[in-house]
From TrEMBL:
<dbReference type="InterPro" id="IPR013783">
    <property type="entry name" value="Ig-like_fold"/>
</dbReference>
<feature type="signal peptide">
    <location>
        <begin position="1"/>
        <end position="22"/>
    </location>
</feature>
<keyword id="KW-0732">Signal</keyword>
<feature type="domain" description="Bacterial repeat">
    <location>
        <begin position="31"/>
        <end position="104"/>
    </location>
</feature>
<dbReference type="Pfam" id="PF18998">
    <property type="entry name" value="Flg_new_2"/>
</dbReference>
<protein>
    <recommendedName>
        <fullName>Bacterial repeat domain-containing protein</fullName>
    </recommendedName>
</protein>
<dbReference type="InterPro" id="IPR044060">
    <property type="entry name" value="Bacterial_rp_domain"/>
</dbReference>
């Protein structure tokens, strides 16, 4: 075969191969694959292998990854709606367009409850709540058992303790933790007496004991007024400044002192709870004549003589009389200290009890005007005192055979 003929055959074969090859490429179908995040900046998808077009039947692996606070949630498009495979393998049988949905997976911070704080109040209280823009805010008045969607200022008016918390849910459905609970007590009712003030300790020389009880924790105020004075208002009783704290349903003992002997008092009481609810009306307790820190001596005069009939103290638990000295002065120029006065008679008698002293007496030699003074010794609160009394006086004409009873009150120096 000639060389020229071989060249012609070779060229023919090359042309045939080229024609066949071109025919095969045109017969293989190729498809487009489009993948993108639903929202820019939320995530990205890695495509393996990455090509402009994919031959029919070719498998492609798609791997999504979130950015920042976002994480992959699901696929949308081309029959893959709702698919949550984080690594998805697709077979190219047609053009495919997929959207990767990335979701915010971080819960928002708790909202802020404003214009109110934990405490007890005697009036309605309001509050507001602030949170993230677009978030749904809810609040609960029972610590999180039941929830109400917040829209505007809320007023607490029911008399009870409200355990207030709040939370918020963002657009992605992430719910925050609850706020710290606020304990809000609404109390608009004044306390009631379960035991009204009453005397438990008999009035002595300067004080009296009172007991009372109310149904709420708070304060008892009192005001001491001389008997017969106009009744003060509840606010006036409080402003007197005399107060004692009191626990709920617990008997409170109060000692009221600095009272004057021989005086009758009206003591007015009013109660206020810890929320500041003051009773509208005060209660009065009448204290009869407060015990006197002195001694009463009863004398019997007759037959030209004078004697002690009885000696009584007004506060026997504090004062014990052990000696009585009777001194009779001429009336003229008498001075309580005995100056410029002539002693007509005097006599002293001692004893361990009042009955021992009761027999002391003096004989009066003639009818005349006299001044009678008694000086006593004894103990005060167990301490021995001498001459602790300066007597008051009693004067008059003592007629022979006449009988007269007189009472002389002797008070402490």
């Amino acid at each position: 075969m000639s060389f020229k003929k071989l060249i012609v055959i070779g060229l023919a074969l090359m042309l045939l191969v080229g024609v066949v090859g071109c025919s095969d490429d045109d017969s293989v179908k190729k498809y487009n694959l489009t993948v993108e995040p639903k929202t820019d900046g939320t995530g990205e998808v890695t495509v393996e292998p990455l090509k402009d077009k994919y031959e029919e039947g070719k498998e492609v692996t798609l791997t999504p990854s979130g950015k920042g606070e976002h994480s992959f949630d699901h696929w949308e498009g081309s029959g893959y709606d709702g698919n949550t495979d984080n690594s998805l393998t697709v077979e190219m049988t047609n053009d495919i367009t997929l959207v990767a949905v990335f979701k915010d997976s971080v819960a928002p911070s708790s909202p802020t409850i404003e214009d109110i704080s934990t405490g007890t109040y005697n009036s309605n209280q309001t509050f507001t709540i602030s949170g993230e823009t677009g978030a749904t805010i809810e609040y609960s008045k029972d610590g999180g058992t039941s929830w109400t969607e917040y829209s505007s200022e809320v007023t607490l008016s029911k008399e009870k303790t409200h355990n207030l918390v709040a939370r918020q849910t963002d657009d992605a459905g992430n719910t925050s933790s609850n706020t710290d609970a606020m304990k809000i007590t609404i109390d608009k009712t004044a306390p009631n007496w379960t035991t009204e003030p009453n005397i438990t300790t008999t009035a002595d020389a300067s004080s009296v004991g009172i007991s009372s009880q109310v149904d709420e924790e708070g304060t008892i105020y009192y005001k001491v007024i001389s008997d017969g004075v106009t009744k003060p208002t509840a606010s006036e009783v409080k402003s007197a400044g005399n107060s004692n704290s009191i626990s709920a349903d617990t008997i409170k003992e109060i000692t009221i002192d600095s009272l004057n002997a021989g005086t009758e008092y009206d003591i007015f009481f009013v109660a206020e709870d810890s929320a500041g609810n003051l009773q509208s009306e005060s209660r009065v307790k009448k204290v009869e004549k407060v015990g006197e820190s002195g001694v009463v001596i009863n004398f019997q005069i007759g037959g030209g003589g004078i004697g002690v009939q009885s000696v009584n103290t007004k506060a026997e638990d504090k004062i014990i009389i052990t000696e009585v000295e009777l001194i009779i002065y001429e009336e003229s120029d008498y001075d309580i200290n005995g100056k410029n006065a002539k002693v007509v008679k005097n006599k002293t008698k001692t004893g361990s009890s009042l009955s021992d002293i009761g027999g002391i007496g003096l004989y009066l030699p003639s009818n005349n005007n006299y001044t009678l003074v008694a000086k006593l010794s004894g103990t005060i609160n167990g301490k021995v005192e001498s001459g602790i009394y300066q007597g008051t006086t009693e004067t008059g004409i003592l007629e022979a055979g006449a009988t007269k009873s007189i009472t002389m009150e002797v008070s402490l120096n």
